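Our collaborator T.R. sent over the components below with a one-line note: 'Predict the complex.' Nothing else. No constraints on interfaces, no templates requested, no preferences about which chain binds where. So this is a plain run: every listed entity goes in together, and whatever single assembly comes back becomes the starting point for the next discussion.
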Amino acid sequence: MKDQPYQPQAGIRPENADRARMLISCPDKPGIVAAVSQFLYEQGANIIQSDQYTMDPEGGMFFIRIEFDLQDLERRLPTLQEDFTRVSDRFSMRWSIFRASRRKRIALFVSKEDHCLLELLWQWQAGDLDAEISMVVSNHDDMRQLVESFGIPYHHVPVTPDTKAEAERQQLELTAGKVDLVVLARYMQIISPKFIERFPNRIINIHHSFLPAFVGGKPYQQAYNRGVKLIGATAHYVTEELDGGPIIEQDVQRVSHRENVNDLKRIGRHIERTVLARAIKWHVEDRLLVYQNKTVAFV
Amino acid sequence: MKDQPYQPQAGIRPENADRARMLISCPDKPGIVAAVSQFLYEQGANIIQSDQYTMDPEGGMFFIRIEFDLQDLERRLPTLQEDFTRVSDRFSMRWSIFRASRRKRIALFVSKEDHCLLELLWQWQAGDLDAEISMVVSNHDDMRQLVESFGIPYHHVPVTPDTKAEAERQQLELTAGKVDLVVLARYMQIISPKFIERFPNRIINIHHSFLPAFVGGKPYQQAYNRGVKLIGATAHYVTEELDGGPIIEQDVQRVSHRENVNDLKRIGRHIERTVLARAIKWHVEDRLLVYQNKTVAFV
Amino acid sequence: MKDQPYQPQAGIRPENADRARMLISCPDKPGIVAAVSQFLYEQGANIIQSDQYTMDPEGGMFFIRIEFDLQDLERRLPTLQEDFTRVSDRFSMRWSIFRASRRKRIALFVSKEDHCLLELLWQWQAGDLDAEISMVVSNHDDMRQLVESFGIPYHHVPVTPDTKAEAERQQLELTAGKVDLVVLARYMQIISPKFIERFPNRIINIHHSFLPAFVGGKPYQQAYNRGVKLIGATAHYVTEELDGGPIIEQDVQRVSHRENVNDLKRIGRHIERTVLARAIKWHVEDRLLVYQNKTVAFV
Amino acid sequence: MKDQPYQPQAGIRPENADRARMLISCPDKPGIVAAVSQFLYEQGANIIQSDQYTMDPEGGMFFIRIEFDLQDLERRLPTLQEDFTRVSDRFSMRWSIFRASRRKRIALFVSKEDHCLLELLWQWQAGDLDAEISMVVSNHDDMRQLVESFGIPYHHVPVTPDTKAEAERQQLELTAGKVDLVVLARYMQIISPKFIERFPNRIINIHHSFLPAFVGGKPYQQAYNRGVKLIGATAHYVTEELDGGPIIEQDVQRVSHRENVNDLKRIGRHIERTVLARAIKWHVEDRLLVYQNKTVAFV
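Returned assembly:
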């Protein structure tokens, strides 16, 4: 079964015109690598990089990411995909092929804290984030000037208990067909199941603790109260369970009794933006597969 | 108020005969450092190292650790302690003075996993752990030969649901007056409140997770199920709340989807022994103060 | 001897009006802490934090940093400093007192790479860098718009082999009496001994390697060629010896055979800005003492 | 060209009887993965894990490590190897196949420091080091009892300037045909080119610094003098250039001005044993390829 909805439609990079990335999950059995690599070879593709993982040699799942070059990819990809169903049917594969030249389009959702937003804008400007930032959506108007100075559209969608449904309708309208990935860059509103459903495994949140410790609100206050010696941040895909989705990346930093809650927040900001930026980089480079609420990260 | 029960009675190191360490906690107010350092100066002591921490300049607690040399310490310490009550009463201090030449006596409690025990034995043998390992107590007899080869007494105290009370009676008898610190080096039995009461803030446990994540049993299995990208270990003082006592030290290591539960255990063993050894080192060097279920660690 | 030239003259923060920081180095002998803390107590000061370090109890150097509050500091500081000479003469101290309310004034020197500059501007804007960025000086005009958008003066001082002396004359004129710290935030020109002399231990450079490995040019290329498994960055005070001054802070990140030189540069940018920002933070908070080409960092 | 001399002859593990690992290096061109995986599939092998790396898609080198299961491996491997020359000749491959069931045989060379030796003995005893420790060779007799208590032969080969040649002759005789990997676990003698030649890329040394900083003797003293803020250790293959061989693994730990040379040594011992153990683990699991004085580490 070919996964349908992922392929981004914009942001063409001519220099990578012939590069593609293939992600496959299927039940493990002998011959998968042979069949896929033989198929690609016959098509004239050159495998640049491949990573694979077998959960359990006996009856487990098999995951592979293959990066390949194929001359005249644009024209030949539809045929290649059609032909590949021979292979994929044989092994009951879930699979997708992404063209590296099509940058993924990101909508950044933010509230009042700007450190994650700034980090992403800067990495994007420096060319380190191979994606398109299509829009910033915020429940406040504070960062309009900053964002627009980067030439990026800014949408102020206020959210109050009364207008929550209407706000979400607006957010869906803004993003429909224009966004491949939603990033909650310290967006302090709960996302509804309906919105999540529209972006399955395509909403990344940064939680400001080392999950599963300190789920929910005020994690730095919780960390201070517990007297931990390391604080952390967690980037994860958003699912219906609060702070319970598949973890993409985590990191920590050492703290001591000297740090009060404000110090933890300051140190934490640094971890948050680093961890979130890494998670997004991996997503837009098609390095992440999700299986049973966990990520396989080919990084 | 002078804290009484801590002073170890054994393990004299002549080379440090004149070195002492003083730990003080009291409500903060002006003049504490002046009063204490003036007092020590008048006694003829030379301050080698001092670390202090004020929780909040306005009305918070004040903590200080002072390392000093005083000629002929052995003989003069009783008088010095008596005289110091002048100062301590003025500032409502809790305080203790430890002689560096008196090594703390440790009882190691173990079950079947030997990695923490081995690490401590090796650090002790290498001279990196400035303490005396007075005995090893285990609910199994497996490690007798190993432990006795280091010249350390080994006590096999089996524990079953029926004999738990009797076992604890034995443990208390073995350690009474002979042990300054109890280390649960992967000891897989719950310690009773009665035992804990006899060693307040003097039982250190190593928990094989990054607390407060994965409290309780099988933390590596829990970590695997949750798909975390870092696993950790936590050394903490034991209180009546399971895995809830003051955290002394924590550390983590990066893992990926490739690691199964057994891999996590293997990687975790390395973190556990490192973290536990650091916590013990800090304790026996009198670097830890406990206040409101948190540690102040002057390291 | 009171160290003269450091005290910044600008950037007053009223909220810290009564907070001061004292840095002292002197040969160790008994009674120093007592004398200083007694002196401060008699003046009515309250010690908030103190850190000390003795190189060697027998005949080594002694270093201390004391943070204290004194009501009406502004008015009483001159007298306090005069009176303190009694103490400082007795112990042959080098010492300085800094008022926390006077933010240090920084000149950022940059060339074409903007990541260190941006990090510092953001931290400054977020209130995490307790200093004043008085000016940016660059041998290129590229970053004028960015810098001026933060309301900071930008001085373009081109440097060619022929104009080097004249350029330096301009730089000295721009900074004379207006700058407490010069930060070389990836400034790709060699600073002359004459300039260094004007800012002793007050020029911080970020070198893009884990010194002393890969001194000099193209450190990432050198690191790639040697096949190291960690790359790093080093913030140090600038002395006449190239990349040889006292090290303030270092950090590293793991790399593998997969990373080419451009990847190392990208990863390195992240380490560089983090390490440089930490070093500057410590300097402006008066946490650094230099002794015999090494730093004592009370952090 | 099949690399000849590596295949260990001892230490059979029945549970892995059918598992093999293949390492290949060759100039990159299209079809390599297809050809190899097709070949393995036709032989009936199931690929469990594969990692590959292309230095440069245009004209660079290609490296791959494949782990596969093949029923009745023992009997069929000779034929498989013979048949594989068809593939390897076509792509000018250097290649080797290792049977996972044949544990590599290690000779540990030590002098007077025991921390690396102990770490390896424990990991081996705990089943974490999938190799056979065939012998310990030392220029001192100090650790005989310890080593023999693990049931491992101990050879005392004294080395003086006069007896160096004779000592090496003895070492070669002891190891000839009986050893797949020589580990210099803090062996403080220089190995001669002649000895190195006999074990190309099969001698691993632990150097007690973060190479290339502090090449040669007394690296901790050098680190202390330079005032670095991190110290490290480096495991590398031994070549004729002192401390100049391909780096396998490195790690570091934070230190401060408080640590004197002895403290650095103590902290360093912990890094050394960890880094060395990781490097050996990777070698014995056939995860390392050497190319142009660098390692490709599939870990």
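Summary for T.R.: The first strand of chain C starts at residue 19 and ends at 27.
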